[in-house]
Amino acid sequence: MDFTSAADELYGVAPTGFVAARTRLAKAARSAGDPGLARRIGALRRPAPAAWAVNLLARGAAGDLAALLDAGAALRAAWASGAGLADLERRRTDLLAPLVRRAADLASEAGQPLREQAVREIEETLLAATVDAGTAERVREGRLTRPQSHTGFVLSGFPAEPGASRTAKATALRRTRPAGAEPAEATRPRAAVRSTGAPPSQDEVRAGRAGEPAKADRAGKAEVARRRLGRAERVLAEREERAAEAAETLRAASGEVGRLRRALERATAERDAAGRRAERAEAARERAAEAVRDLRDAVERDTRHVRSRAAGDPGLK
């Protein structure tokens, strides 16, 4: 057993069985005379449910996962020129949703159905893997411990950070728009003129402009609230995982204590039995020694008797 094979086995195990499997593999490494490997295995962290489900994709749906990651690589390559981005975006979308469902199905089949938050984290992780090559490699490897997310410039499918400045949002919009494309806001007035035959009145323009900050503020607050909820749910999930891991460690330790106690009881019983056998053997030895002494005394008496008779009767000489 080496570290790679041990980690591959371990990260395919359901989170509820992770600690027991890690203990078993570390013990096997120590028994094989490799304490360094045992320490490395013991340091591996239990995966969050969403990360584990993505790891299952690397094992149970490797072909479909590779297709999505390849589409992400093509998307990143086409980003500079903008050529073919629309087709690549459609391909990514077509591949993403079935993979998210497949990950949830694999988790359910393994007896660990996922919460809605974990399903969202699977989608975020897979999207991040299409944007970042390093994340893609970690996803392909199948040993994630935590969900992944993208924090750099935004591709289509990733919302801009709430509260960002107008300049930053405009930059993000330009980055997510193919070269030469015109912002949607710039085309709306001309479309309105073409469709109505007359530009909007100044009152309509002022009313629209007055409503824009309030709408943007509400959207920003909603996005902030959604992200706070997501963070709170992730913290809750992590604490539940830690509690479950601690409970699993306690169960494993209790099992080990029980096993050692039973082994001690067996050893004590064997010691007591051996003591009784030794006592019986000692008693038998003493009886045998006494019998030998009796026989020796009898032989000596017979010998003296024979000599005595021989001394008194010359014919016996």
Could you characterize the architecture of this molecule?
The protein is mostly helical and 317 residues long. It has a domain of 44 residues. The protein contains 11 helices and no strands. Helix 5 crosses helix 7 and helix 7 crosses helix 8. The protein starts with a helix and ends in a 5-residue tail after the last helix.
What's the helix-strand series? HHHHHHHHHHH
C-alpha end-to-end distance: 87 Å
Give helix % range. over 70%
Radius of gyration: 40 Å
Mean pLDDT: 78
Question: What's the total number of strands?
Answer: 0
Q: Beta-strand percentage?
A: under 5%
The poorly predicted ranges are: 153-197
State the secondary-structure class: mainly alpha
Write out key terms for the chains shown.
317 residues; mainly alpha; 77% helix; single chain
Short recap of the structure:
The chain has 317 residues and is mostly helical.
Set out the fold topology.
Blueprint lengths: L2 H8 L7 H14 L3 H8 L6 H12 L1 H17 L6 H25 L6 H16 L1 H9 L24 H11 L7 H13 L5 H111 L5
Helix pairs in contact: 2-3, 4-5, 4-6, 4-7, 5-6, 5-7, 6-7, 7-8
